[in-house]
Amino acid sequence: LSKHEKVPGFVPKVREVLIPHKKNAVVVSMDFMAQELRVIADYSQDPGMLECFIGLPARDMHAMTGLGILNKTLLEPLTYEQFMAILDDKNHGLFGKVKKARAHGKLTNFVSEYGAMAAKVAMTLLVSEEEAQGYLDAKEEAFSRAAGWKKEVIAEAKKVGYVTTMLGARRHLRAAFMSPDRMEANKAERQAVNFKVQSSSAEMTKRAEGKMFDAALEQRFDCEIIASIHDE
Description:
Helix content: 55-70%
Structural class: mainly alpha
Number of strands: 2
Distance between the termini: 6 Å
């Protein structure tokens, strides 16, 4: 659960409402690491994304996007290896810029994951729309196959009228695609990709919870499973 400021000067106290089931017990938060990005990598088989998750050594996805963002401003572009070396060297003259570029790369990766355009990215990162579009371009250049996969999902959804998850759940979108309301039709394009990624991720979570139930964890150990929380 979030412990970071969403509003300047206000720290969320969501965690404080969760109380351990007995004295001296602790609350444990378990999570999938980059779950939805990994689902996109698996669906799209984007070489850059796969390199981030199963490469030897694995690359930093946010650094790859950040590298593209930073290189647009440098006379002599950095390599990925140079970027990562500077990120580990606080005394380097470019350390501040590299650190900021990675942070922007991370936010760009997550904000644009489901089709957010430059205006939304600009609002989130507090930059101009022109600069935000450069961030999106950097991401697409780094992970072009993933961008192509999303377009294929939308095209297929328009053709058959629905999309499916990894386990076969189906969401019908034909009516939305055929709506005379352009906003509704555009929304359906985002929903097509969102459903394949988010609902497949939800299926993974439910399977994990089912295995926890089958293993009788609450009965075998002195613990209490509280809840499943997504995007709190």
